[in-house]
Amino acid sequence: MKEEIAQLKILQAIDLEISEMDSRLAAVTSGLDQRRTAIAQYQTESEQFRERLAALEQRQREMETGLEEDLARIRDRQAKMMNIQTNREYQSLLKESEDAKKSSKEREEELLRLAGEIEELSKKIEECDNLRAGEEKLLADDSKEADSKLAELSGAKDKILKKRATKSKNIPASILKKYEMLRERRKGLALVGVVDGVCRGCFMNIPPQLFNDLLKEEKLLICPTCNRIMHHQTADEE
């Protein structure tokens, strides 16, 4: 069993190297994904601002049309007031003129408010578009560098995987199956050392008799706490 444990230690080291390689690959793609997410977010915000802007501009046109109608009504009523015959007609036209003036004033105030909001939205749209353009340029630059890194890392990983395939052939199928199952369940760490009776996977003491059996290296032993395969390890080796 000593030889099998030695082969498992080699395999564990290779698998940890592969895991590190996967982390580096993920880090490269993660950076690109973050930029793509930022670009999509700026695009969404810009579209939402543009929809709001379109609604405000439509409202602005309606207000301008209404204001023109109010001013035309005022001019019309004032012209008619010059030719009226009775006080009743005069009072009626005067009221209509005053109502139109009140309406026109409210529309002017609304147009001022709309103009301010439109200007603010236009600035936000410009800011979003500039930020998106900046991210797109950075993404293009990063993508070139990332392609080179990914090609380099993928090539290195392929070599490690070939090495793993060769090394795994030296391990009995039943032991390899056990190792693979534990590696999947224990976050990539299936084999752990035991130093002075303490499992370095869960940092719990193992029973003295189990530790004595471990020293003999006659059979495959499992930590009773974390269920990983154990091997004896001195403090210096650790």
Short structural summary:
It holds the Pfam family Zn_ribbon_9. The protein is mainly alpha-helical and 238 residues long.
Number of strands: 3
Helical proportion, percent range: over 70%
Strand order in the largest sheet: 2-1-3
Strand percentage lies at: under 5%
Write down the secondary-structure element order. Answer: HHHEEHE
Structurally, the number of domains stands at 2
SS summary, helix count: 4
Q: What would the average pLDDT be, to the nearest integer? A: 92
- What sort of overall outline do the alpha carbons produce when their principal axes are compared? rod-shaped
Radius of gyration: 39 Å
Describe this protein's structure:
It is a single chain. This protein is mainly α and 238 residues long. The protein has two domains: 150 residues, Helix Hairpins; 60 residues, no CATH class. Helix content is 77%, strand content 5%. It has a three-stranded mixed β-sheet with strand order 2-1-3. The longest helix has 82 residues. The model has no long low-confidence stretch (mean pLDDT 92). It comes from Desulfurivibrio alkaliphilus. InterPro entries: Zf-RING_7 (IPR003743).
Secondary-structure map:
Elements: H1 2-81, H2 87-168, H3 173-185, E1 191-195, E2 198-199, H4 208-216, E3 229-232
Pfam family, one: Zn_ribbon_9
Keywords: Coiled coil
Protein name: C4-type zinc ribbon domain-containing protein
Summary keywords:
mainly alpha, single chain, Zf-RING_7, Helix Hairpins, 3 strands
